[in-house]
Design a protein that fits this description.
Strand order of the largest sheet: 4-5-2-3-9
CATH topology: Hypothetical Protein Aq_1857, Chain: A
Low-confidence stretches: 108-112
Pfam family, one: Fe-S_biosyn
Largest sheet: 5 strands, mixed
Order of helices and strands: EHEEEEEEEE
CATH class: Mainly Beta
InterPro entries: ATAP_core_dom, HesB-like_dom_sf
CATH architecture: Sandwich
Number of strands: 9
Domain Core: 1-101
Radius of gyration: 14 Å
Helix content: under 10%
Length: 112
């Protein structure tokens, strides 16, 4: 699986990651969703069991292997300059034009 990321999307993702290490995890979230599910970009500290890497250039992207079946082998992640969410698409579909990031990393400074 591969994701092509536009230059502006990469810049915004790097800003979201900040100085703290982490991974961008594509998640098809159905928890508490009133629809069939939505695509979310989680920022996690480390991969979970069952996660696989996605080729996304220099950015660390992962996905749960069981959820990978919902997505095509080649996708594009884009963003508009003044809009707070991303657009995930492929040649045949738009998965979402409103993909939000959610940082779920543990902040080490709160435990000290």
């Amino acid at each position: 699986m591969k994701i092509q990321i536009t230059a502006l999307a990469e810049q915004k993702l790097r800003e979201a990651l900040g100085e703290q290490p982490g991974y961008f995890k594509i998640l098809f979230d159905t928890d508490g969703c009133g629809c069939d599910g939505i695509t979310v970009l989680l920022i996690t500290s480390e991969p979970d069991n069952g996660d696989i890497e996605i080729d996304a250039g220099s950015l660390p992207f992962i996905i749960n292997a069981q959820q990978a079946i919902f997505y095509e082998e080649l996708m594009l992640l884009d963003v508009e300059r003044n809009y707070p969410s991303y657009k995930l698409s492929s040649n045949s579909t738009i998965y979402s034009s409103n993909v939000k990031t959610r940082d779920i990393r543990i902040n080490d400074t709160t435990t000290k």
